[in-house]
Amino acid sequence: MTDRENPVHYLRGYAEILAEVSATGRRLTREEIESRRALGEQAADAGHGLRTLVSEHLTAARSAWPHALGSTDTALAAIQQVIDAFAEGYERAQRHAVRQEEAARREFIDDLLYGRSDLGRLSERAERFGLRLSHAHAVAVAQSPVAYDEGDPVPRQVERALIARFGDRNILLTTKDGRLLCIASGHQEEVLAHFSRQAYAATDGGRVAIGRPQSGPGGIVQSYEEALNVLELAERLGLDEPVLRAADLLVYPVLTRDRQAMADLVLDALGPLTTARGGAQVLLDTLTAYFDCGCVAAEAARRLSLSVRALTYRLERIHKLTGADPADPAHRYMLQTAVIGARLLDWPAQNL
Fold it and tell me: Closest by alpha carbon to 344, among 226, 279, 263, 287?
């Protein structure tokens, strides 16, 4: 065993300090205190436990007591000073190590989610955090009105729940731009489902989006961006489901892939509604409610706090203005697609 591997190495000069201080009654000098701090830092860097090191200090003091120490009060005060200084240095080294680890973790997460850095080097760093980038991964993103950092109680609460259920099983939980993120292997669907439940409960009703599993070093970026797009989509469409999966909403990116074509459809199909008294928004909301409840007039009327007769009048008005009958299956698909496009493009609030 080398000197550094032996905890006694970090007590060098301790017995001499105790003997002199006890004999003279003086307190430790600044240089002596700083030397104890330095040894505490070195012990922490070498990976020794503080409990063991404190025990070694007390054992050494007991060994020296019968023949080396004078006044009990002076000796105890010196022991206290030594251990305080040693523990301060130890804790200082630990805080520095934690800050370095947090900085490395944050740099890795930024590189991972932005697709930066050399892929080979990124893969090596990923293994340190339990990820194998050659496998498929999926990303779940939880968003709430409150922004979170990693040290906040909510992320720690969700992390404890995941570890209690699954252990440290190739899961990376972090925060990014105030949101909670969970990165897991693509086949660990139950991990992301559990994260979604825990995050929804911990964020007091926040929304969670889950990207599709994607393979390769760039797969995490793709899944992450999918989850972010789903959150934005849910905001635009007013979707109220607490957990949304990108795989279930693939039709919407398809609809908006050609923005100009969608804008043309909205204007052609729904543009005449702008001539109605009060503008297009009321009639557009009527169509939205009607389609959202499966074209059941009674349910749509209830959602809009209208009588069925008033709802029927609005539908007839839409038919008259647009030439398309919402109750006619031949017209329904075109109108419903146009309504979805209007919500995605924020029409009529935004000019197309």
Answer: 263
Q: Which residues contact 343 (CB under 8 A, 6 or more apart)?
A: 236, 237, 238, 288
Q: Are 110 and 116 in contact (CB under 8 A)?
A: yes
d(CA 236, CA 234): 6
Q: Which residues contact 74 (CB under 8 A, 6 or more apart)?
A: 21, 22, 25
Per-residue 3-state assignment (H helix, E strand, C coil) for 130-162: CCCCCCCEEEEEEECCCCCCCCCHHHHHHHHHH
CA 83 to the chain's CA centroid: 39
Confidence of residue 91 (pLDDT cuts 50, 70, 90): confident
Q: How many CB atoms lie within 10 A of CB 161?
A: 18
Q: What span, in angstroms and rounded, lies between the C-alpha atoms of 133 and 24? A: 64
pTM of structure: 0.62
Q: Quote the tokens at residue 184.
A: 């897991």
Backbone dihedral region of 238: left (phi > 0), alpha (psi from -120 to 50 degrees) or beta?
A: left
Dihedral angle over CA of 197, 199, 203, 204, nearest 10 = 0
Question: Residue 213: is its pLDDT beyond 80?
Answer: yes
Report the side by side order of strands in the sheet with 207-210.
171-176, 179-185, 137-143, 207-210, 243-245
Q: How far is CA 254 from the centre of its chain?
A: 28
The length of the chain is 352
- The answer on pLDDT for 309 being more than 90 is yes
- Residue 318's closest CA among 343, 289, 292, 346? 289
pLDDT at 136 over 90: no
The answer to whether the peptide bond before residue 348 is cis (omega within 30 degrees of 0) is yes
Please give the Cα distance from 78 to 53 (Å, whole number): 16
Contact (CB, 8 A) for 344 and 256: yes
Q: Where are the alpha helices (DSSP H) in 173-277?
A: 189-202, 219-237, 251-256, 259-270
What's the pLDDT score for residue 1?
43
Helix (H) or strand (E) holding 173: strand 171-176
User: In sequence order, what are the residues at sequence separation of 6 or more whose Cβ sits closer than 8 angstroms to the Cβ of residue 204?
Assistant: 144
